[in-house]
Structures are given as structure tokens and as C-alpha cells.
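QA checklist item 7 of 12: single-chain prediction sanity check.
[x] sequence parsed
[x] length recorded as 187
[x] structure emitted
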Amino acid sequence: MHTITRAKLQKATEELRDAGGTTTHMLHTIARMTTGPAAPPQTERATANVFDTASFYYDDLSSEYERTTGATPYSWQTAMFDDLTGDDQAKVIRYVINEFGEPEPHAETPAPMALADHLLDGLRKARKLRIEYGEHFRPAEIRVRSALVALLNTQSVTGGAALKAIGHALATGCGTHQAVAEMDGQL
């Protein structure tokens, strides 16, 4: 398989759509772009994979309509990819692009401690909601705390130390990194 970014696939399918291309044309374009200069058997296999994936998301979209409205505009007896238009077409194509395209090479993922600070902010908000609006917000607070502890465990901060650091951060208003360092005696 040839590596191609999601942004390039998205741009190509948007240009094709704007030029009057159908969903089938877009799927063939995705398959062709992901195989590059491959031999015919590889191209056929890639095309089959792209269409199988699109079928899965097409069926999922149809099932979503049936769950929410009781009926689907895409009858399984006569369904064709080219029946998709507008948001439905964009949704299926986006899912296929996410399956076969590579993320941008320079896309930054948050560092674990930066992510921990975001979770800590979420924990502060969940705690505030519980205090102001009642105990039915406690499950949200517990889930965010659990996620934060699990993340800190990946950074070699054990469960007990993680809970102490979280408590310290909540009490003092400092960030996760500083709270962990203070609890370890580093600061």
C-alpha cells in the first residue's frame, strides 16, 4: 500500500465531488491513491477493501436512520453508494478516508502531562458540578479521576502517589506536573 495523508484524500474527494463526481468515483479515487503505482492485483484488492469498508459505514448509517426515525432512505434491496448525497455522503467518505489515510506527519499529540492537566481541569469542573448541582454528577467526577490516575500510572506515578498528587493539585490549584513533583519531594 502507498502511504497518503488524510488531508490529500479529503482534498481529492472534495474536488471530485465539486466536479460532479459520485460516491463511487470518490471511493475508486481513494483506492487508486492509496495503492500508488501498484500492480493490478493490488489495486483490485485495495478497491475491494475500500468498498467493503464503505459498505460497513453505509450499513451503519442506514441502521442509524432506522434507530432514530424508524425508517431509512437507503433500502437494502436497492441501495447503491451513489444514492448518498450531502452530509450522508460526506460522513461515509470521511470514515473511509480515516480508515485508509494516514494522519498528518506533523500532527502533534499532547504530551502525557499536558493531557493530565486537561484531565485535571475536567476533574475540577466535574467536582464543581457535583458540589453545586448534586450527587448525580459524582459518576462523572469518578470517571475523570480514574482516567487521570490511569494516565499518571503510565508515567510511573503509582496509584497512591497519583491520588495524593491529584488531591494536592485540587487543593492548591497547581498543575499536575508540579503536584507530582511536590508529592515526590522534588520541589
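[x] summary fact logged: The longest helix spans residues 40-69.
[ ] second reviewer sign-off
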